[in-house]
């Protein structure tokens, strides 16, 4: 194949996978309701900046930085369902290009010839377009798609730092500035930001090549990281304040089965097709262990791909469960670059092995993506409204216990232009200083004692309507023994019930 024909083939292939990736990210994006976590984001973004920076830190474990970004986004583009998802979608659509940029920089650093570099960029781009966690996170009104993009751009900056240090140039410059901004952003985007900072900092130390550093370079290195640490102190104070509540009453659990279920998805290798990824990883290692600069690249990518997950597992074992697949999705970025190196870097018969493994992996990811797009939403609030509409009357009252259940319900009501009365119990999020305990680790959501629930059930506002609806999310956690339901049934009888996953809605009519 001539160079011109190879270029045309790769461009055509890139356009095809880009279109497929865009379709997968857009599929049902306007018809899938927000689930609880997304509703939290939309709720916070609907408030003013004073609420975001003064109230959110009192109950939310995450820093308010992402909510502020979403607030600015909605002020510019509106607060409709598609508008709010568009921030993550924009980041998700940009991420494959950022990963291709990383692959291009890696190929140039390794002094590969032009055909291999082009193949590397194409494979990295194609895998990024189809990667299961990248497709899924691009659809969420959560910080994860932004984190993935920031992590990718920071990884690209690290390769630039490594190349300029190898060439004997000073550390100070645009690449180091981009790295520091990315490092600070990762710290402020999520409460597990220190895990990402640890991986990025260690990778930066390898790129820095301390043995070749001057005192001026050391000053920039230490001073830059010190500035990042100082700017992070307010978020660290929020994390320290919230951590005890999370540790005492987290809803998460951690075990070997969870790792077995989630790690393959996190690293884009579900099912038996993980063999293809293993082949690509072995091929990549065989390529990168041959020279010093390639060994540095291999070490940096492995640290970025594995260390955050290892630290998350360690924290889950020793302190409190924090391991959640979606919080670790940025590790897919360096991992996909490694797999692309394995696919494009070999010659001869091994090249056919790498191409076949990459094709097998891409086909499997596409099949899983399509299957997931056809699956029901995480929480089907639109389905709940369809069931409720013919049964709901204008004077009905919906009680949301715990109070956070009102967030996705009210969001779905807004999307469907329905003005129904909803009463969060005991009060709207955040239910600060309301007594009770916090079974999910959030001070904004409480489980109330029996006497308090009985008093609420007898209150005039709840006693007046002829029919009330009790919405429960996680009733075994927040209402063990059905205490609130029992209190409401003292003067009422159950007449209808809707259960779909965690959504439990009960109609209670006056006797």
TrEMBL record:
The lineage of its organism: Bacteria, Pseudomonadati, Pseudomonadota, Alphaproteobacteria, Sphingomonadales. The keyword DNA repair does not apply. This is Glycosyltransferase RgtA/B/C/D-like domain-containing protein. It comes from the Bacteria. Keywords: Membrane, Transmembrane, Transmembrane helix. The chain crosses the membrane at residues 87-112, 119-135, 141-159, 171-189, 195-211, 218-240, 271-290, 297-317, 323-343, 350-368. It comes from Sphingomonas natans.
